[in-house]
Design goal:
By secondary structure, the protein is an alpha+beta fold. The protein has helices spanning 3-18, 143-148, 153-156, 416-419, 438-441, 453-483, 493-504, 510-525, 538-555, 563-580; strands at 27-33, 37-39, 44-52, 65-66, 68-83, 86-99, 103-107, 111-114, 117-120, 124-129, 167-173, 177-179, 184-192, 196-201, 210-214, 225-229, 232-246, 250-254, 258-263, 275-279, 283-288, 301-309, 313-315, 320-330, 346-360, 363-376, 380-384, 388-393, 398-403, 407-412. Helix 7 (493-504) runs antiparallel to helix 8, helix 7 (493-504) runs antiparallel to helix 10 and helix 9 packs antiparallel against helix 10 (563-580).
Length: 581
């Protein structure tokens, strides 16, 4: 039996044994991997299991990794034990990891923050060898299997294959018709006549044409009831809920989802089957288009908007923060842009975005706030006009337009010279910082000499000549590196890695982060031949793969959070720079 199969069997047996002993207020956390010795070309599956009362105080963060990088995850599955009327719950978070190089690797301690405290697992060590360790061994067959078509002890101890258990998984949608961007709740329910010890997804579902969000299970755990289905008695148990937002109009299909169900053994000699799979039927949904009107960005739901200033009065040269907030329920993750803001008499800097969102059965609720930094350039009253916002209200089937209240920021302080435009030829002053520039130190009425046209033309000619000399030297150095089979370096490696680390920290927007990764790779390696050119080496292929992923992120529609994908491609780009630069 493989390591992964052993882990599954032990987990199922533990669920059966603990079903009657696990109390609702007990929580345990463990981390396990499918192998502790892998090759560089292999992948490692890390599973973090939270059992008992699942009451997380925040999102589960992946553990620190040494000589490993995160490829994907987490894939979340609910596992339910239901034996003789006793029920317990477990939630599994599965990550896929990739070794970076041969040697020792380590998965650090996992910290799970619960409402009752913090649970920590022990670190897991992994040996990484070159190449691949190959497939893991399957179950060893007994000699009796070939000689007798099965073990003779099956008949001796009364082991008989039992009948196929009666159980099914049904998917239901909260509504058959809706608009683009309007949520539909899909509930997956298990109907069973057998004792089920564990439930998990056989494969990750793919919802083409939808943006999918997981809906958290109730903190009290799943509860089952007995119902009649097709004239027979079943135990009904909700096992998973998904909130789907259609991204296009038309007739869309919610595809089947396949679940793997582990069954409790009826006795020591029970011959199974131990595990069965069940799939739901596809669901058809009719999706209506949204109005195509100017100023409408695709927000669907019930929203309110508000604008506020962090202060009513500022001194000339100081900054104020203007906050624009959208609050309500709907497809808030799709609301990714604030209104355009331009204020005569002030500098307005691009906003930072803050989100406080929660996914529930009715949709995404909470708020998104854009914070603009406003620096007034003149004294007096700075008028901030109403900021507009348009959204589609499914309750009325109409587009609604609203706006914030107008605001006024009073700008005080500063001298008349600071508030008025400087005279021609004068150097700027910095009164907000308290620093005196050269014009502050000169005697009154004394100005700097203005250079003549000949001086300006001579200076420009000298600068152009220097630029040509420096550029020619750089191009000759690049040609020498290319002739030697090495890339033409245009950016130092340390600076490039610094830029990629800045992207990985997640402080940039989607387009800005993608543009910085692309610019950094081109800065280090120069122009990279696109697909369709001459056969690429391993380095060029690695660079192309990263750039293709960057292009996808850069131009993909903003239908959700791309932070995880951005962090992943930034880490891949950093690996390419370290290996090939």
């Amino acid at each position: 039996m493989s390591g992964r199969a052993r882990g599954t069997a032990i987990w199922a047996a533990a669920l059966v044994a603990a079903a009657g002993l696990l109390h609702a207020d007990e929580t345990s956390v463990r981390a396990e991997v499918d192998a502790t010795r892998v090759g560089v070309a292999d992948r490692v599956q890390l599973t973090i299991v939270v059992e008992g009362r699942i009451d997380l105080a925040g999102d589960l963060a992946p553990p620190p990794l040494k000589n490993l990088r995160l490829l994907g995850g987490p894939s979340v599955s609910e596992q339910v034990s239901f034996v003789n009327g006793a029920m317990s719950q477990a939630r599994s978070y599965t990550y896929v990891l990739q070794p970076i190089g041969p040697g020792k690797a380590e998965i650090g301690a996992v910290q799970v923050r619960l409402a009752t405290g913090v649970k920590t697992t022990a670190p897991i060590g992994i040996d990484v060898v070159p190449g691949s360790v190959g497939p893991r061994p399957g179950r060893r067959r007994s000699p009796f299997d070939d000689a007798f078509g099965g073990s003779p002890f099956d008949s001796l101890f009364g082991r008989r294959p039992r009948a196929e258990p009666k159980l099914k998984v049904v998917a239901t949608a909260s509504r058959p018709r809706l608009h683009v961007g309007e949520p539909v709740l899909v509930t997956y329910t298990l109907y069973t006549q057998a004792s089920v010890s564990a439930i998990q997804l056989a494969e990750a579902p793919q919802y083409a044409g939808f943006w999918a969000e997981d809906v958290e299970a109730p903190k009290t755990g799943p509860t089952g009831d007995r119902v009649a289905l097709e004239g027979e008695s079943y135990v009904r148990l909700p096992i998973m809920r998904k909130l789907l937002f259609p991204a296009k109009a038309g007739r869309l299909t919610i595809p089947p989802v396949r679940f793997r169900l582990s069954l409790a053994r009826l006795s020591f000699f029970d011959a199974g089957p131990n595990t069965v799979e069940r799939a739901t039927e596809p669901l058809a949904i009719s999706v209506d288009a949204l109005p195509d009107e100017p100023g409408f960005g695709g927000a669907v739901g019930d929203f309110q908007v508000k604008a506020s200033l962090d202060r009513d009065t500022v001194a000339l040269g100081e900054a104020a923060t203007l906050r624009f907030t959208v609050r309500g329920s709907g497809n808030l993750k799709w609301v990714d842009r604030a209104p355009e803001l331009s204020l005569p008499g002030a500098k307005v800097y691009p906003p930072q975005t803050r989100s406080d969102l929660k996914v529930g059965p009715e949709g995404i609720t909470g708020s998104r706030t854009w914070e603009f930094v406003v620096v007034p350039e003149t004294r007096g009253a700075l008028a901030i006009p109403p900021l507009p916002f348009a959204y589609f209200a499914p309750s009325t089937g109409a587009l609604k337009r609203t706006q914030t209240a107008a605001l006024t920021l009073r700008v005080e302080g500063g001298s008349a010279a600071a508030a008025a435009p400087p005279p021609p030829g004068a150097l700027p002053t910095s009164r907000a910082s308290g620093l005196a520039l050269r014009s502050d130190l000169d005697a009154p009425g004394r100005g700097l000499p203005v250079p003549g046209p000949r001086f300006v033309l001579a200076t420009l000619g000298l600068l152009l000549a220097l630029h040509a000399v420096i550029g020619g030297a750089a191009r000759r150095a690049d040609r020498r590196r290319l002739a030697a089979g090495r890339p033409a370096v245009r950016q130092d490696v340390r600076g490039a890695l610094g830029d990629l680390e800045r992207v990985r920290r997640g402080r940039l927007g989607k387009e800005e982060a993608a543009a910085l990764i692309e610019r950094t790779l081109h800065g280090v390696f120069g122009a990279v031949t696109e697909n369709g050119g001459p056969p690429a080496g391993e380095r060029e292929k690695a660079i192309r793969d990263v750039l293709q992923q960057v292009q996808f992120i850069r131009y993909a529609p903003q239908l959700g959070d791309y932070s995880e994908a951005i962090r992943d491609v930034a880490a891949r780009a950093a690996d390419v720079v370290r290996k090939w630069a």
